[in-house]
């Protein structure tokens, strides 16, 4: 009975996350771990680091981790049987993530999704009610574009050839996100205020020790979908399709102070 309930729990998690990973080529297990542990990103990162679960891993890499964690020969036989079925491959990867994060975390995640749906339903009903009393000729104004300020604290060895006021593409932004120990995605105005609390150095980035922490601020046009987000994989997933940003600040950090508003990885 308990095993059936656990399988049902994990199947529900799979139903929730499958639409988000069905077209994903890399980092599936890493992503699912962070989805389930949405409120405990540092724990998810610690588990992934310990088990060498990477955001750049291929499905084949994830499958090897799944195989390494399966102790039941019959389960391994089933995995190999459906190896050509991508959905079944993804199912096993999700089940592995569920096992690693635990039944309680899966339950919390499903309750969180239910709460989201209830909130969305209430919001939709409110919008529908408002629409009924709105004049037929009224037109909803287009959504305003917002420039996001993505603020990261990364080790100097992650900077590469990046320079202040230079352009940066999506793949480079994602690499910096993966290397970050602190992050904040906010409006340009809020970033200006927050930056005043940081103690930045005037050192030339080229000469800074590889292990020293660097503050990087990237302005990203049309970034309204990532402002305020507190989960790194969601920021990566919602980066604008144009995939471009501008490095507005790049400096060494004298101390790790003034980071109270930042999210720690």
From TrEMBL:
This is Uncharacterized protein. It comes from Nostoc paludosum FACHB-159.
């Amino acid at each position: 009975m308990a095993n059936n309930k656990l399988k049902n729990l994990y199947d529900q998690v799979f139903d929730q996350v499958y639409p988000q990973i069905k077209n994903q080529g890399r980092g599936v297990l890493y992503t699912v771990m962070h989805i389930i542990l949405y409120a405990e990103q540092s724990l998810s990162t610690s588990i992934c680091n310990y088990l060498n679960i990477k955001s750049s891993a291929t499905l084949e890499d994830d499958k090897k981790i799944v195989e390494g964690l399966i102790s039941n020969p019959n389960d391994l036989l089933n995995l190999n049987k459906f190896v050509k079925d991508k959905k079944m491959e993804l199912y096993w990867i999700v089940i592995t993530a569920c096992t690693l994060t635990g039944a309680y975390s899966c339950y919390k995640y499903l309750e969180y999704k239910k709460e989201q749906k209830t909130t969305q339903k209430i919001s939709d009903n409110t919008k529908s009610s408002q629409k009924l009393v709105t004049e037929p000729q009224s037109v909803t104004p287009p959504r305003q574009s917002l420039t996001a300020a993505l603020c990261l604290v990364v080790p100097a060895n992650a900077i590469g050839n990046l320079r202040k006021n230079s352009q940066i593409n999506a793949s480079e932004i994602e690499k910096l996100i993966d290397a970050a120990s602190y992050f904040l995605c906010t409006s340009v105005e809020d970033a200006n205020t927050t930056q005043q609390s940081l103690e930045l150095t005037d050192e030339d980035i080229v000469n800074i020790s590889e292990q020293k922490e660097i503050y990087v601020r990237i302005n990203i046009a049309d970034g309204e979908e990532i402002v305020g987000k507190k989960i790194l994989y969601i920021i990566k997933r919602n980066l604008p399709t144009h995939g471009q940003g501008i490095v507005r600040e790049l400096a060494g950090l004298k101390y790790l102070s003034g980071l109270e508003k930042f999210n720690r990885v």
